[in-house]
Amino acid sequence: xxxxxxxxxxxxxxxxxxxxxxxxxxxxxxxxxxxxxxxxxxxxxxxxxxxxxxxxxxxxxxxxxxxxxxxxxxxxxxxxxxxxxxxxxxxxxxxxxxxxxxxxxxxxxxxxxxxxxxxxxxxxxxxxxxxxxxxxxxxxxxxxxxxxxxxxxxxxxxxxxxxxxxxxxxxxxxxxxxxxxxxxxxxxxxxxxxxxxxxxxxxxxxxxxxx
Length: 211
Hints:
By secondary structure, the protein is α+β, with helices and mostly antiparallel strands.
């Protein structure tokens, strides 16, 4: 048998022994999730639907072109990375669950399904859009105290028909000036009266001394 025939048989055997791929490429379109602020966000792993023979599932967050590990599922155990402990978890279909999401969690996430030997790894992407959290300001209560006047309360007691609200009076600038002028003149007259009393008392005392 010639050398060429040996190589052909060897290549045919290698092709037959190679494990077939049980996975296929997934759509390129990214899923967009828009949860409310401070709520729970569930990011689906579309790559899992196209993978049948796999060993592990890993979630990443893509930040500035780099992949940051979030959580890894391998041999029936889910292990969050240090910065996501108590925050990230997985569902039965390997969807990523993030607790109390804020605008800081917004960005692009990747779910990667690692296939068994001979298979093809699949991955899918999810966009998480979360707006900034806003807190509603608590309105300050305003208390108003009405001014009431009671009439004939001593003889007839308090009655709703005898209670009236005193309406505020509008004072013009002219009346305000007249009021201040009256107060000023009253003070001047009182001062002049006091001076006159003092002078009269001194004169009376001098007369009593020389008499």
